[in-house]
Amino acid sequence: MPSTSAEVLLMLLGDARLPTGAHTQSAGLEPALRAGMTVDDIPSYLTARLRSVVPVEAGAAVLARREVLDATAPDDLTARLTAVDEAWRARTVSPALRDNAQVLGRGYLRLLRGLWPDDLGVRALTHVGKPSRGVVLGVAGAAAGLSAAQVARLVGYDDAQTVAAAALKLEPMDPTRAARWVFEAAPDIENLSSLAGLATVDDLPATTAPLVEEWAERHAVAGQRLFRA
To answer: Treating both helix axes as pointing N-terminal to C-terminal, what angle do 95-115 and 133-144 enclose, rounded to 10 degrees?
Structure first.
């Protein structure tokens, strides 16, 4: 695939209008605000996610992409993608976060089936079970011709934009303020490209954010909520 096409697909995958279900998510911002976090704290919250839970997911995406590019047979690839997904799960303690990532993964997989129905990675992924968002995005990156660094940054950008977009619905404000948060988070998003060299599941980061996990669990059983997570 020409590099120009890969860039277009990178923009497509990072577009908030993509029909993947991401519009139902706040990346944990809604429960964080309910727990007492203020709007002024949102930039710090965004940064905390980019340095804790996001590297685990971005790393899984990088590894999934690598497995697709190194694959020779669908059955073997399914096993390898399953191993990456299981490694991500082992490092994601919160059941609510795992469940949410599965929901997002399902939405992205539906998109991949529409864009690349005959792709080896997409066909193998359909047998993984309930793959997480990171693993599905890694397969998408391989199909789209994205580099490992691009895939890692895509996961970070998607997370940051989810927080910013949710903030505009939860605490109406000037949209340029939310855009500035994402702009100022660019160095942390760029830092995720350092994950591009991951080679095995043993290399996957195991960073976590206990408060993010606690808030996610509370939100999963909340009676009234605007976002699913």
So the answer is: 30
* More confident position, 18 or 193: 193
pLDDT attached to residue 1: 46
Q: Is the pLDDT confidence value at 11 over 90?
A: no
pLDDT exceeds cutoff 80 at 113: yes
Do residues 52 and 187 make contact, with C-beta atoms less than 8 angstroms apart? no
- CA gyration radius for the chain? 17
Percent helix, strand and coil across the chain, each to the nearest 5: 70, 0, 30
Helices 210-220 + 95-115 axis angle, to 10: 80
Q: pTM value?
A: 0.91
Residue pair 81/156 in contact (Cβ under 8 Å)? The answer is no
DSSP state of 36: T
- Gap between the Cα atoms of 64 and 103, Å rounded: 18
CA distances to 16, 18, 148, 187 from 24, in Å:
11, 12, 27, 27
By mean pLDDT, which of 9-13, 97-101, 112-116, 122-126 is the weakest?
9-13
